[in-house]
Specification:
With 221 residues, the chain is mainly alpha-helical. Helix content is 77%, strand content 0%. The protein is built from 8 helices and no strands. The radius of gyration is 17 Å and the shape is globular.
Length: 221
């Protein structure tokens, strides 16, 4: 008996192959392959979302657009590439926060959101303390970015908890994985190198982005 593969499954499979290729290219220092596979993987998130059917999906697409630009910026061989990427990714988080707040409304003050705020707040303080000694000159941008990153997770939790099952729990998990990926990138760069860092800074980051994109695909908001 033949088993038909759904279009979405095929898209996710292609996304996974591209993501794995980028991670391997990063770990093996294959710069040209990495420079192709990295933005291609992020661009495939637009295909995962599909034609936006809601305001929520359009804001997620905007966040993906910022993420794509940020990924490209981090590839640039310039001194300020990291700061440029940080600024662009801040736009991605603002877009995602706007999408999640649009769903959650006053539920951003709910108990689940409060718990998420406590956890992300403590983790963000810990991460910033680790980065502080070697982050002279960019401490203010890192604090701003850390706050935005944590807020993205908190609002995602609020959105999922208020959506009555219409927004998959995976969206909140995706936001948390996005947080882990970005925090790992900062720790790897400014604290001490993480062995096989690309598995966290790229692999976990893209898993999080994929979860958010899949949520946007089905969200009715």
């Amino acid at each position: 008996m033949e088993c038909a593969v759904s279009p979405l499954s095929a898209i996710v499979a292609v996304f996974a192959v591209c993501a794995a290729t980028a991670v391997v290219a990063s770990l093996t220092n294959r710069r040209v392959l990495f420079a192709v596979a990295k933005p291609l993987t992020t661009a495939l998130l637009f295909v995962v979302v599909g034609l936006p059917q809601s305001g929520f999906a359009r804001l997620i697409d905007l966040g993906i657009a910022f993420s794509l630009a940020g990924d490209v910026a981090l590839l640039l061989p310039t001194k300020n590439a990291f700061l440029l990427g940080l600024a662009i990714f801040l736009g991605a988080h603002i877009a995602y926060i706007s999408a999640f707040v649009g769903v959650a409304g006053l539920e951003v003050l709910s108990p689940p959101a409060a718990v998420a705020a406590l956890v992300t707040g403590l983790v963000t303080i810990w991460v910033l303390r680790r980065l502080w000694p070697r982050a002279a000159g960019i401490r203010v941008p890192l604090v701003i970015y850390g706050c935005a990153l944590g807020t993205m997770v908190v609002t995602a939790v609020a959105a999922v908890s208020s959506a009555g099952g219409e927004l998959p729990v995976a969206v909140a998990l995706g936001a948390a994985m996005f947080y882990v990926g970005d925090a790992s990138l900062a720790l790897d760069r400014f604290d001490k190198p993480i062995k096989y860092a690309a598995l966290l800074t790229l692999g976990v980051y893209w898993l999080g982005q994929l979860a958010i994109a899949l949520g946007a695909r089905v969200a009715p908001f």
